[in-house]
């Protein structure tokens, strides 16, 4: 049975416009001279650099599973995580824009009108996809919303609408065994650690687009923690 509450969760995240602020981009060119020093030309200025800054790369260990069932469960979790992560990423991108827009609206009546427009937009663009989420996919989505925004879906709804409405939507979600108050806790919950592992591998493989979480996550430290915990057990 599919739950329609996912649609409402996204009412609080998406604005009507797809436009984003355009930032000026620097044009970089590099010239090697006879000493093999690389020069970068940045908007007409020449900077000599003997090193090149690269993005951080995490070397991931090869996955090992104790049983075939463990491997199968991981692959199922990977499929579900990759499916819902783009929604959580988009939610984080839209949240700031929506908050800024609501802050520019003074009258409550106009805010409600704006919310209805958002609802119509979301229903038209995302309802079919979100309605097709299973219960477990929906719960993973709620966790990833917390990872990307730093707030639970419940708190976001309460902040952007009303506490009473958030309460009832949490009750409704619980009827489908989903909690809008769920947090992403990779140090406390093994499934969340596996989700983080899936994300990191998917980022490096180019399957998912990396977006920084709202709070620091040291994957190497996290992985060491769980490897030790599993070994001790």
Automatic annotation (TrEMBL):
InterPro entries: DUF4294. It comes from the Bacteria. This is DUF4294 domain-containing protein. It comes from Aequorivita ciconiae.
